[in-house]
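Can't attach files on this board, so I'm pasting raw text. These are the components:
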Amino acid sequence: MTTPPVGIIMGSQSDWPTLSEAAKVLDDLGIPHEKRIVSAHRTPDRLWDYGRSAVERGLKVIIAGAGGAAHLPGMMASKTRLPVIGVPVQTKALSGVDSLYSIVQMPKGYPVATMAIGSAGAANAGLMAAGILALQDADLATRLEAWRAALSASIPEEPSDD
Ligand code: RP5
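---
Top answer:
Structure tokens for the assembled complex are below.
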């Protein structure tokens, strides 16, 4: 089976409602992707294997979402040179600030491109992945520009009372 350019990984099944927003954007833009549950704490060997094989499998970008002690994006960035886009999942206890802080403050040398907390961050992760891939893909660049123009055109000039 051919490896798609984008891998979406998440720490738990419970993260999928958030990370599915990234998948929706990738679908809209016609970008093939795979999705996997890869937990830094519960399945560390799976994390290691995924990161070690990512380049040779042909992945180009990894979107990694997790909540709470959200170590998945940073640990994945430590295992692969591929760009890792981190999505902090909103949590009940601390509203996702815990996730954000766990992802954003990486040490020099191992960056994670950290998005906003929650579904907006996940959708933007899809768009960020698209922007990276569009650097080498003129057709995708055209689709991404059209997507952005359509969003812009959908915003009314005046607020409605409805
Ligand atoms: C993290 O713990 C996951 O990324 C998830 O956001 C959080 C809670 O996981 P579950 O207890 O819902 O499986 O590892």
